[in-house]
C-alpha cells in the first residue's frame, strides 16, 4: 500500500510501473490487526519517514479490494515472485488483482531477473480496460476486437491477450441509461487501460424529456375517455389507470383477476414469463434482436427457439413459427433437415438405392445389411455377380448343378434368354444399363457363358446354350507314341549295354596283351639258367 500511494517518496515516474513483491510466506489482510489490538481501518495514505512505515501500530492492514483500487489508481502492475510452496495462494490473489503476474522464485533467488522479464512480457501482452464510478441507473458494456479478429463480449470484452509490439486492437463501448439523475446534470465516466496513464473521459448529457412530450394532449379521447395524456404516439395514463389505452382501473380490477387472464393455465407463468400482464392482457417482451419476436395470447410462442441443423434455424430450409419449424417444399423433419429429393439415391442403373434399400432424407438406408455405399452398391462379403447366379443359370439353362432339385423354387427371379453363339450376347456398349459378362465352369470342366443385367427393374440373363467342353484324347497317336517310346527305350538300353561290353572287352584284351609280353621275357635256355645259379 505504501509503495502505491507514496509516489514522491518512492520516486515513481510517468512510465510503466512494476512492483515486484518477493516472499517465501503468505500475507496479512484487513482484520488481522485486531489480534494486536489495532482496529482502525487502513486510510490508504502515505506514512513513510526515512523509508519506514510509521503507522503499523495505528492502522490495520488494507483489504484486498482497497489495495486493488490504489494499485489501479496509480497504474501499478504487480509481479509476485514467490516460492513454489505458496504458488497456489498467490495465484488466487492474482485472480483478484488485475494486471498482475505470479512467478516461481528459486530457493537462492538466482532466477529473479528472468522471472521479472517473463512476468513483464506476460503483463505487456495483455490490455485490460476499466472504468470509473458509474452514475446511478447507468450501465456500461464492452466488446473487444483483438488479434486475428477474435471478438470478446461480456467480461472478456474488457481485455485482449497475446498482443505483440505493433499489434492493434479496438474496443467498442456501449453506455446505457435507464433513468435520469435527480439533478439532471451531466455526468463524467473515465475509461482507461490498466497499467497506463492515458484515459478517456466520457461526458453524459441526459435527455429526460422528449420534445414531443411538450405537445401532449391531456385527457385525450385516444386514452379511453380522457383517462390519460396522449403524447409521442402513446397514452400516459392518469393515476389509478392502467392499460395500453388506460382502459382499466386499478381499484375496479383485482390484480389476481388480471393475472388469471394472463395465464394459459394454473400451472404456467404469467405471460409464459416472456411478457408483462397489463390490464389482463399480455404484452410480450422485446428482444435485442428485432427479428426475434415473442407472440401469442400468452406470449407462449417465439420464432427463434426451433430445432437447428448445421447451426441454422430449421436447417435454413424453413421458418420458425411458435417454436416449430414450418418446412419449405421438398423438406421435412423437426429441423427441416430431411430432403424429400431422391436424386442423390439414384444408382447408375436408374434404380433407387439399387433396389436394396429406401431413400430417407436423400440418403440410402440399405435394407439388406450385406450392402453398403451411397446407393447400396457395395457388398464386401458377396461372392460376386457371376458366382452368385452361377447355380441358378446352370440349373435353368442346362438342368444341372447344385440347385437342380430346387431350381423352380430358388431360381425364378430372372428372365432367361438363350442364344446359340457368344457373339450374340449383349455388349456393354450397346446398353444403357449396367451389364456383367460371366464365364463359369461346371462339374464336367465344361465352360458356359452368360450375361446378367437389370433393366427396368427386370433381371435378364442371356446364356449361350452350347457348352464348351474339352475334346477327348486321340487313342492311336497315344498308342503309337507309347510303343515308339518303349522301342526307343529298349534300343537305348541295348546300345548302352553294347557300349559297356565293348569297353569291358577292350580292357580285358589290353590286360591280356600286357601279360603276354611279360611271358616272353621269362622264356630262356638251360645254359643261361646255369649262369645265374
UniProtKB/TrEMBL annotation:
<dbReference type="GO" id="GO:0016477">
    <property type="term" value="P:cell migration"/>
</dbReference>
<dbReference type="InterPro" id="IPR036465">
    <property type="entry name" value="vWFA_dom_sf"/>
</dbReference>
<dbReference type="Pfam" id="PF07974">
    <property type="entry name" value="EGF_2"/>
</dbReference>
<feature type="transmembrane region" description="Helical">
    <location>
        <begin position="475"/>
        <end position="497"/>
    </location>
</feature>
<protein>
    <recommendedName>
        <fullName>Integrin beta</fullName>
    </recommendedName>
</protein>
<keyword id="KW-0732">Signal</keyword>
<dbReference type="GO" id="GO:0019901">
    <property type="term" value="F:protein kinase binding"/>
</dbReference>
<keyword id="KW-1133">Transmembrane helix</keyword>
<keyword id="KW-0325">Glycoprotein</keyword>
<dbReference type="InterPro" id="IPR012896">
    <property type="entry name" value="Integrin_bsu_tail"/>
</dbReference>
<dbReference type="Pfam" id="PF08725">
    <property type="entry name" value="Integrin_b_cyt"/>
</dbReference>
<feature type="domain" description="Integrin beta subunit VWA">
    <location>
        <begin position="1"/>
        <end position="210"/>
    </location>
</feature>
<dbReference type="GO" id="GO:0001968">
    <property type="term" value="F:fibronectin binding"/>
</dbReference>
<keyword id="KW-1003">Cell membrane</keyword>
<dbReference type="GO" id="GO:0098639">
    <property type="term" value="F:collagen binding involved in cell-matrix adhesion"/>
</dbReference>
<keyword id="KW-0472">Membrane</keyword>
<dbReference type="GO" id="GO:0098609">
    <property type="term" value="P:cell-cell adhesion"/>
</dbReference>
<keyword id="KW-0479">Metal-binding</keyword>
<dbReference type="GO" id="GO:0045202">
    <property type="term" value="C:synapse"/>
</dbReference>
<dbReference type="Pfam" id="PF00362">
    <property type="entry name" value="Integrin_beta"/>
</dbReference>
<keyword id="KW-0677">Repeat</keyword>
<dbReference type="InterPro" id="IPR014836">
    <property type="entry name" value="Integrin_bsu_cyt_dom"/>
</dbReference>
<keyword id="KW-1015">Disulfide bond</keyword>
<dbReference type="GO" id="GO:0019960">
    <property type="term" value="F:C-X3-C chemokine binding"/>
</dbReference>
<dbReference type="GO" id="GO:0005178">
    <property type="term" value="F:integrin binding"/>
</dbReference>
<keyword id="KW-0812">Transmembrane</keyword>
<keyword id="KW-0130">Cell adhesion</keyword>
<dbReference type="InterPro" id="IPR013111">
    <property type="entry name" value="EGF_extracell"/>
</dbReference>
<dbReference type="GO" id="GO:0046872">
    <property type="term" value="F:metal ion binding"/>
</dbReference>
<dbReference type="GO" id="GO:0007229">
    <property type="term" value="P:integrin-mediated signaling pathway"/>
</dbReference>
<dbReference type="InterPro" id="IPR002369">
    <property type="entry name" value="Integrin_bsu_VWA"/>
</dbReference>
<dbReference type="GO" id="GO:0008305">
    <property type="term" value="C:integrin complex"/>
</dbReference>
<dbReference type="GO" id="GO:0043236">
    <property type="term" value="F:laminin binding"/>
</dbReference>
<dbReference type="Pfam" id="PF07965">
    <property type="entry name" value="Integrin_B_tail"/>
</dbReference>
<feature type="domain" description="Integrin beta subunit cytoplasmic">
    <location>
        <begin position="498"/>
        <end position="530"/>
    </location>
</feature>
<dbReference type="GO" id="GO:0033627">
    <property type="term" value="P:cell adhesion mediated by integrin"/>
</dbReference>
<dbReference type="GO" id="GO:0005925">
    <property type="term" value="C:focal adhesion"/>
</dbReference>
<dbReference type="GO" id="GO:0009986">
    <property type="term" value="C:cell surface"/>
</dbReference>
<comment type="similarity">
    <text>Belongs to the integrin beta chain family.</text>
</comment>
<keyword id="KW-0106">Calcium</keyword>
<keyword id="KW-0460">Magnesium</keyword>
<dbReference type="InterPro" id="IPR032695">
    <property type="entry name" value="Integrin_dom_sf"/>
</dbReference>
